[in-house]
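Reviewer 2 asked us to include a model.

Predict the structure of this chain.
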Amino acid sequence: MTRRVLAVDGGNSKTAMALVDLDGRVLARVLGPGASPQNVGLARSLEVFEDLARRAARQAGLPAGEPIAAHTAAYLAGADLPKEEDDLRAAIEARGWSTTTVVGNDTFALLRAGTADGIGVAVVCGAGINCVAVAPDGRVHRFPALGRISGDWGGGAHIGSEALWLAVRAEDGRGEPTALLDAVTAHYGTATLAEAVERLHLGEVDFDPNALCPLLFEVAAAGDPVARAVVDRLVEEVVLLARVSLSRLALLAEPVDVVLGGGVLTGTGDVVVDAVRARLVAGAPAARVRVVDVPPVVGAALLGLDALGAAPAAEQRLRAAYREPAALAAGG
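Predicted model (structure tokens):
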């Protein structure tokens, strides 16, 4: 059997898979819906993964019944604790896609996608927020990333909820005046925000806080101090995650990469990135802040290729394939 890697980037909003050979050639790439076990349950997650894996096999022209790959590298949102990683690995192994399987949190795929060796710090801010760090000697630092119960602040859903909360309080007098009031009211198409809140409460309108996150950044960019304070708080949190991770691994003075990814960070231009870079240098002057330039599924594939001992040229070929405009636009 040709040595192949089945790479899985399972996010909250979408799942990307790639089938890659040992030379870094992309044999198949498929996209599907988000399938985080925390959001949709383990059974539904496995249904999505199975469908995508079989689609990848067909796209690659593999004979029916042949194992899809030698190794499955699955890096998934919702794999936040060792027990969750173990449970997901056992469930995926039972599918029989490959001889060996590794399951980890999707932030590790981001770190590998943004570095040449998987060493450094990665902070992802998409629907949620997370951070992992890997030292040159293999030591790892990570956070549980379970939301407010594990001390988290940030992520698209959290920031979107803040936008609504601040706008409501501006309307009813409990908060400061802010342009978020008009922006959020317009988003819901109601005469007042109180009317929108009532409709949300009664279930007449779906509440998608992620949809309000870009709106908050737009209002902040226009100079609104209330919205700007939320953006500043996000910058502070990203810097704090990176700084604590570097400190725990004794890397504050070392020239390591700090990789930023996720739609909230990468979709706001340089607003957050430049501020993070400026603030982080005070405590970690040698850190190199960079934004990932390939989808995280590339990081999952690279971790798989690393496990199989692929040559450096394989990484170069894979990265080149995913830097094509069409691949970046598709996110997978």
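The mean pLDDT is 94. The chain has 14 helices and ten strands. We have added this to the supplementary material.
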